[in-house]
């Protein structure tokens, strides 16, 4: 249970209920960080708009590179909610979620491409306290992904640091997006009868 309880749909105003309905339709359940943030509606809306804009804007890097870097950040920070939700998103994108079990071995694992290993190492360096990113590391990423790609990777890892640290501070833990215990999130293209 989070340190600050979620705002239940029964206590939500009409606009928030509409937002909950949208979230349930998109994800199969209202994400708990969203429902907790509902105590501060203006920040909830700011965060929601930001998330949608980031999703639309972050298209320079290969999908697997983006998703793995964000996932690695969540793992490093111990955010079980982010790991749960991120696994579900990767599954929905058709990515290989079985290799996530080997994420700690990424530097030597053949399950990860060179590009993925570079992004994962950068996520580790950005997430370390203090940050351990080097000029050489950024130069190598720039050769691989270009400046636009480095900016995108940096932004995505920074955003995940914010999400994971917020969830950890408020004790928001995994919600069952991948196990199906909390909600049944259908794979894209499946009907409700197939769930």
TrEMBL record:
<dbReference type="InterPro" id="IPR003779">
    <property type="entry name" value="CMD-like"/>
</dbReference>
<protein>
    <submittedName>
        <fullName>Alkylhydroperoxidase AhpD family core domain-containing protein</fullName>
    </submittedName>
</protein>
<dbReference type="InterPro" id="IPR029032">
    <property type="entry name" value="AhpD-like"/>
</dbReference>
<keyword id="KW-0575">Peroxidase</keyword>
<dbReference type="Pfam" id="PF02627">
    <property type="entry name" value="CMD"/>
</dbReference>
<dbReference type="GO" id="GO:0004601">
    <property type="term" value="F:peroxidase activity"/>
</dbReference>
<keyword id="KW-0560">Oxidoreductase</keyword>
<feature type="domain" description="Carboxymuconolactone decarboxylase-like">
    <location>
        <begin position="58"/>
        <end position="123"/>
    </location>
</feature>
């Amino acid at each position: 249970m989070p340190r600050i309880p979620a705002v239940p749909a029964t206590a939500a105003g009409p606009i928030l209920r509409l937002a909950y309905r949208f979230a349930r339709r998109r994800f199969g359940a209202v994400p708990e960080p969203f429902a907790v943030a509902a105590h501060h509606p203006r920040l909830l809306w700011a965060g929601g708009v930001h998330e949608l804009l980031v999703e639309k804007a972050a298209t320079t890097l290969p999908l697997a590179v983006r998703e793995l870097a964000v996932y690695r950040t969540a793992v490093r920070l111990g955010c079980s909610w982010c790991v749960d939700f991120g696994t579900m998103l990767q599954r929905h994108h058709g990515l290989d979620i079985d290799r996530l079990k080997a994420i700690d071995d990424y530097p030597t694992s053949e399950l990860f491409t060179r590009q993925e290993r570079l992004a994962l190492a950068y996520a580790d360096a950005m997430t370390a306290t203090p940050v351990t990113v080097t000029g050489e590391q950024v130069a190598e990423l720039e050769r691989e992904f270009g400046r636009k790609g480095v900016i995108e990777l940096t932004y995505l890892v920074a955003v995940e640091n914010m999400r994971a640290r917020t969830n950890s501070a408020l004790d928001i833990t995994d919600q069952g997006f991948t196990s199906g215990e909390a909600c049944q999130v259908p794979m894209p293209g499946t009907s409700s009868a197939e769930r």
